[in-house]
Amino acid sequence: MSKPAPKPIQPDELVKIARAVIQADRFPYLATADADQPRVRPVSPVRTDGFTVYVANLRSYPKTGEIAANRKVELCYLDEHHDQVRITGTATILSDRALLQEIWDANALLRQYLGSIDNPELVVYRILPNRVRFMREWALEYYEVAFENSQ
Question: Which CATH number do you get for residue 83?
Fold first, then answer.
């Protein structure tokens, strides 16, 4: 059996292709570290700006402590064609009240579940990328995706 030949990618299309994978996957996987044990779980981002991703969480969830101890995380997105995007970054708690309000107003599930933007259980993480990679299904080769951080 011969190795499948992936469709070639033009460098100027890479950002667009990577963003399409992100848009197609509603439940990417978030990797954290629990001491020396990796932990991975599906998450539902509440906002995405380019390659900066915002993930809501409850303070009582184990990943809150994991991220507090080690803010280095990775998100993995996979589309229906098994193309993937990996965003390696740093998670920080969102403190921008205006942006938090925008996220709150746009997310009915948050409002229904938590009742108030001031619910002490609410934590929104901003995952700022330091590396973004894309891979076509079975290509076994990652492409580095150029990006600019939105501070």
Answer: 2.30.110.10
Q: How confident is the prediction along the chain (151 residues), in pLDDT tens digits per residue? A: 676 677 778 888 999 999 999 999 999 999 999 999 999 999 999 999 999 999 999 999 999 999 999 999 999 999 999 999 999 999 999 999 999 999 999 999 999 999 999 999 999 999 999 999 999 987 788 999 998 876 5
Integer CA distances (angstroms), 31 to 62, 72, 106, 118, in order? 12, 9, 25, 27
Could you tell me if residue 30 is inside a domain? yes
Tokens of 28: 């990417």
Instruction: With CA atoms as reference, report the closest residue to 125 among 100, 149, 151, 106.
Output: 100
State how many domains the chain has: 1
Q: How many CB atoms lie within 10 A of CB 27?
A: 12
* Full residue range of the structural domain in which residue 122 is found: 11-142
Answer yes or no: is 2 within a domain: no
Entry field: residues in the chain? 151
Structural contact between residues 48 and 132, judged by C-beta atoms closer than 8 angstroms: no
